Amino acid sequence: MPTITELLSANLHEVFGNRDAAARRAAIERVYAEGVVFVDPAGEVRGWDALEAKAAGLLAGAPDTFAFAEVGPVYLGDGTGALAWTFGPAGEPVARGVDVVEVRDGRIHTLRTLLA
């Protein structure tokens, strides 16, 4: 069973940072519960398909030079974790945020993205 740290990393890099649609979908089905709830400043979506659409839309609107980078430590609690990140060209982020996850049975059930 993956650790919360591994799930946070997979969420950032294998899903939201992955421009390969087939690999991204495989990661979604491995990392998240089927009924995952994703909440960000734009609103709330539920399920694998909606989460995939959010990730694909984000990447489609970003130049190929943009990538996610982890910032600082992973914060862990009982079934929860948080990871700060940046997004943009290497060394020149244009966005900063924190992902907070709730994990049950080795999968992310809730993902909240907070933006700086």
Description of the molecule:
By secondary structure, the chain is of the alpha+beta class. Helix content is 32%, strand content 45%. Strand 4 and strand 5 (95-104) form a beta hairpin. Helix 2 (21-31) crosses helix 3. It is globular.
Strand content: 35-45%
Quote the average pLDDT: 97
Separation, N- and C-terminal Cα atoms? 32 Å
Q: Fraction of residues in helices? A: 25-40%
Can you tell me the overall shape?
globular
Radius of gyration: 13 Å
How many extended strands?
A: 6
Largest sheet: 6 strands, mixed
Give the helix/strand layout.
Layout: H1 4-16, H2 21-31, E1 32-40, E2 43-46, H3 48-60, E3 67-77, E4 80-88, E5 95-104, E6 107-115
Parallel strand pairs: 1-6
Antiparallel strand pairs: 1-2, 3-4, 4-5, 5-6
Helix pairs in contact: 1-2, 2-3
